[in-house]
């Protein structure tokens, strides 16, 4: 029997599946020793202000540099780490590594007030003293709490009892910003969220997928930079024919979510921006910040430092090049 989804269930034997499960099992038991051997690394992806085109912060995304399987993406091992509980030490390691890096950016670029955004797993909130761990990390790294943002999914907050709520409140009271990750994929109840100590909504990438140039190619890919035919005036009508229709609906939905979030005092970030047309259309909705391959792929901290130094909002340096300082 397998323990997929955390529930034991009977499955027919399937050699291919069997091999996959063997690997999964191996990865799960290898997590803690791998952490001790230093096989994990954090990559950073810039969060760009849509009004000023500048890098305001970065999301920390963990990778496993596996000696045998190469670099593993978090989708491969975070669920295993959640299930085994290894997420607690791993999550704390990511937090400390990321806060140390953010403290370094603060020393190097004191005027920029670059923030770091770190993902928190459900298990960190439910099964560990996350408040004490975060306080400890801030203390040891010297990062001011205002430069730390923690990303939590709606589903991680659901469950019996008030534990997550108390933890969120304590973290918010410390001056940490709380973001709801992948917003729009779960319950997406804004009135419920407005009663929680939440500061930022991160719209899931699926909303942005259909934000494409209706006159351009209908395929999206990394950095497809067709001409942005949507006029820069917010009053420009959105093309609502054929392939444009779904675009129109999603833009209306995102626009409404942004307005409602702003009315509730929340700021809005969007993920998964892959091309210029998406970035421009998103900007017209009033969304505050954005993240995606169009601006920069997740990468090492030095790349983000170079962008900060050169006042760039894109890795290739072709976007808005307004100087960051002076
Ligand atoms: P997430 O928090 O929603 O992170 C955004 C994901 O979108 C990242 O995937 C990022 O690489 C990817 N992404 C960024 N820009 C684009 C784009 O333009 N197009 C597309 N298609 N994707 C883009 P990644 O790094 O594979 O991480 C996957 C998920 O793993 C994260 O989703 C997060 O839920 C989880 N994760 C990553 N690091 C950690 C961590 O340290 N702790 C915990 N608990 N979870 C983590
Ligand atoms: Mg995230
Ligand atoms: Mg996300
Ligand atoms: Mg996501």
Walk me through this protein's architecture.
The protein is of the alpha/beta class. The termini are far apart. The C terminus is likely disordered. Bound molecules: ligand C2E and magnesium ion (MG) (3 copies). One magnesium ion (MG) binds next to strand 6.
Per-chain topology:
Blueprint: H1 15-37, E1 40-49, E2 55-66, E3 70-72, H2 74-84, H3 87-108, E4 115-119, H4 122-127, H5 130-141, E5 148-153, H6 154-157, H7 163-173, E6 177-183, H8 190-193, E7 200-203, H9 205-208, H10 244-263, E8 267-271, H11 276-284, E9 289-291, H12 301-310
Parallel strand pairs: 2-4, 4-5, 5-6, 6-7, 7-8, 8-9
Antiparallel strand pairs: 1-2, 1-9, 2-3
Helix pairs in contact: 1-2, 3-5
As a percent range, the share of helical residues equals 40-55%
Q: Radius of gyration over alpha carbons?
A: 21 Å
Low-confidence stretches: 6-10, 217-241, 321-326
Task: Give the number of helices.
Answer: 12
Output the helix-strand order: HEEEHHEHHEHHEHEHHEHEH
Structural class by secondary-structure content: alpha/beta
**Small-molecule components bound:** ligand C2E, magnesium ion
Shape: globular
Beta-strand segment tally: 9
Mean pLDDT: 84
Please describe the structure with a list of short key phrases separated by commas or semicolons:
326 residues, 8-stranded mixed β-barrel, 9 strands, 42% helix, disordered C terminus, binds ligand C2E, binds magnesium ion
